[in-house]
Please model this.
Amino acid sequence: MSASNGRGIEIDELRLKRAAKRDVDGFELGPVSLRIGSGARVAIVGPSGCGKTTLLRVLAGFERPEVGKVKLGERVVVTEGMSEPPEARRVGFVFQDAALWSHLDVDGHLKFVAPTVSKSDRHSWIQRVGLEHRRKAKPAELSGGERQRLALARALITEPDVLLLDEPLASVDVHLREELGLVIRDLAVEEGVTVVLVTHDRDEALAIADEVVVMEDGRIVESGSASESLTNPKTAFAASFLAGAALFELEVAGPGSVRSPFGEHEAEDASSAGYRLAVLPGDLIEAPTGIPAEVVTVRRDAFGRSLVVGRVAGQPVHFLSESNPTSGSEVRLGLRNPARILPLGRSEPRVNPLSGSVASDHGDRR
Amino acid sequence: MNIRSLLTVLPFVLLGCAEEADVTLYVALDEEHSKQIVRRFEEETGLTVNARFDAEAQKTVGLVNAIRQEAENPRCDVFWNNELAHTVALGQLGLLEPYESSSAAGIPAQYRSAENTWTGFASRARVLIVNTEALPDRGEWPTSVEDFTDPKWRGKCAVARPLTGTTLTHFTALRERLGEARFEEWVQGMIDNDVQFLQSNGATMRSTADSSNEIVFALTDTDDFHVALSKGLPVSCVFPDQGEGQMGTMLIPNSIALIKGGPNAENAKRLIDFVLSEQVEGLLAAAKSAQIPLRASVTPPPSEQILKIGSFRQMEWDPEATASALADRIGEFQDRFSGSR
Amino acid sequence: MNPRVQSLIARVPLLGSVSFFVLFVVAPIVAMYWQTFWYEERFTFELWGDFLQKPDDREAIWKSIRMGLLATGIAGVVGTSLAWFTTRTDLPGRSIFAVFGVAPLVVPPIVLAMSWSDFADMNGFFGCSSLLAISNTPFVYVLARRGLTHFDGHAYEAARLARGRSAAERMLLRSALPEIGAGCLFAFVFVVCEHGTPEFLTVKGKTWITYAERVYGLWGKSAIGVDRRDLLSPIIASLPLVLLILTALFAALQLRARTDLRSDPAPLPTRSLRRLRPVGVLTCVAFLGVSLIVPLVVMVRWGMGSTQKVEPMSIARLQRSFEQAYDQDLSAVVNSLTLGVFVAITLVLFAWPLARATARRRGRLEGLSLLGLAVPVVLFGSGQVLIWNSSFANDVLRENGVDLYDSFVLVVLGFAGRFLPFAVLTLCTVTRRVSPAVDEAARSSGRGPVARALRLHLPLGLPAAASAAYLGYVLALRELDLAAMLPAGNDTVVRRVSNIVHFGGEEPGSALILTILLAAILPAALHWILTGRRMRGLS
Model:
């Protein structure tokens, strides 16, 4: 991520602490430092409670950090003892639940946020998000996708420097997600706005963002380009969370080598227990010399390939098969590439390995 | 347990009420005084009385309305009213049963129905209550209801609005007695003299007794005056219009009547006999309400400010005529005293 | 159990409620109005001939409306401010103020009026409007609170991001407006209905009258009238009041139906008051003082003997006042409390099925249930007498040994009919919020209607039912007119107090009032202490 210019974001040594209250656990964010280039689209991913939404709310000005500095473009919006109010930050925000105003219609929403924008400009925005036939509709009459389109137009019509998105696709029907993701992406590119997206959903992240920041327990554990993180994760946590990797524990086999169910692997720091063997779906290949794996389910995808979920040493693994196995049969699997021995993140990832995404995310709004 | 017992017994058990009373009494005289008399009757006769009391907030006509509404299926046996006119009106409507009580002997004929449908007893007088701190000199005190129109007292005196209770009866009787023209002149004189028309006789009493107030005297009932007196407030009382040729002070007695078609006529008569007895009149005289006995033979109230019957000039008035006029007058008075002026 | 039997059993509560509603609300009111059309054995509009013909009538209506508007305006501003301070800000002690926002509800308006008349010689149009406003502020307060707390925190933040804090606050208020408006309309209804307070407070130099007073005054006329016209004049005269009230109540319902209440909104960010802090504290303290502390202080002073000069005021005198009150009127205290408890239970029993049916059928019944509240209480009570002491009722019931008219049961049912709208409204909110899926899920699991009602809807609705019951209890404790009209309701504290105080018994009278206030506050206080939470009020 390059140095900031125009509409970039700089976060330095940000810390925020919330004491535990009656119904809410205590919480600590940071220290977090991050540079986001002007016009970049960054997804912050991580499980529930990792601090990603809080970070987003700090950027918007809804939360005040104790320590740290935030720069939006050339303007310092957070520094010691100062936090610019949200309305002065030139930031657009799209909430997970759209957060529309039930008593205003579509046009009324835009009129409220941008009273000086002309009627024709408002209408052109309504058109750009594809709501031209719903101009007089109230939120209750809109579908989940339409609500988010309106929320998007509302956030962008004020011409912000930064667009903040809090799981914008979560409340949208699955088959509409991709389309809406593209709308968001296209509009962001057209407007040249810097995008920060928070999500726990890999598909959502990849649909909108080019870069990924992985957070865990209030800290950033990894960042880089989305494709890099997907194909070549640097931590076991990112591998599991982003790429749907299966993680296997390691035993020390001897000097400079560790053992996994797949055999022995070379490792520089084989004495450490803080490492896992990460097996990405593309890492596995059927091989007669491989280890036995039970076939759990087989699914044909649109390209005619057989996607198999198998089980190795009790762990579910994903791979493409050419032999067309049946459920319950046994295949032999080997590793295609050198084994990925990756350090854990800060803690054991709480991941549902079968789907590759976090099971739930409700305690996340702070 | 069947439905009947659920509906009737359970609530009464919960309320600690008797199951079925021997006689039902509707009482407009305040509970504090009437209740002990009812208890005494129960003790002496062994009968149980279901007493229903009036609510002051219902303008003391709540029970009269109830009796009228229940006329088709009377619930009440005996009506004990704290004044006279409404009872007489009930009689004129044919809702009362004639009964000549043996205890009524000695009660002046003026306060008894010619047809024996009602009988008056224990009475209140319509008097002037004076603030003795504002008017320490007895010679200054007003002496007549005519004083309300005296410019000397402009804005300094009060009368209850004549819409209910004794004030309504008093004004109606005055209208009968003075005739329309003179009565009209008197009322207009009061309005022109900024007399304050208050909510009730209690309110006129309180306004007068409160020395911080501009009101120095008012028209009220002797029981209200006696309340102020027993509270140690700086008040005194004047029986108005006692001079030669003046009309005298109006007495408004309690009244008791037998309801036509009531469920327990025989017990009702025993109750009426008891209430009309000299003993009860004496009790009411001794109580806080200081009712003036209509019979000279009964011990009067202890306060010497409340005069004994026979020791003052009484205003002559005809309860039957007054009751007949009541319906017309109340409409007029309502327009005049409770409308916008 | 056989499914057909089960579904029959499941319908019993609604049938019971509807029968109750028809018998104890609709029938008495219809019977009262029917009389005005049935004259000399024929149907006629004759008695309606001089309806509203008098200029005084029209002026009184106008006065009522003006008083209603002024009081409602004050209640609206005070109630909304209180709600805003206690829900939105970091006001010190806001959780305590939040509870006391509903406090005036336990103080009968006439007690507030007596206290202020004693305390500051309060009277006149403005004084009367202000006190009625204070008495009815809880309606606005509770609904405004609901409107404010159900606004989505994210929607607030979205507004703030675009236009800043004040615009977001305005947006918040705007979105709570239907609820605030509904609260104001409820307040309006109670102000125009009230006849005791205007009468009591404007005794001096009275130059005007409200329509409720005028209608009430006509009952005095009907007591001695010989003409049927006189007898029925209050019923005819009450019509404009009824229409005014019904319009206001329906408008309130419409407004409330329009509010989009999210069951689980994101919390609103708390607003720091900073310099406004003293204003907030002052507003809350002043409200508390006016509505609760002044009446309490005046009542305690009365109990200590402030209205007499025979002996100095003292604690011993206060003690004696209580002894005297309990000595004479313990039965009234017991009756009032028993009545309150029974009304509370009955109210919930009958309101619940109506609320569930309303929630399923989009509001028709909810609107109907308002009927009992819309007519003057004297008319409502007279209707009960007319129906339940009719020859027909006597033949059917009394001949079979059930004397409903003279029984405590009629008082309880009459009160429940009168207060029904509150309970239906309270319970409706909850029944609407329970998703149909909740019932469907249980249904598909094979549980019958009885099990679903007992195991699912009962626990889900219990908090609202408790609020409705509490409201019924408090209203029953303070209701005077209706109690006085039904024979078995005669011996209650409020009726007793109105007489005692009138006859100069301020000492025992104040002891009785303090007892009732304590009894009214007790359940809420206990609930608060035991669970550390506030009752959800009448939302």
Remarks:
- Chains A and B do not touch (no CB pair under 8 Å).
- Residues 79 and 152 of chain A are 29 Å apart (CA to CA).
- The two ends of chain A are 28 Å apart (CA to CA).
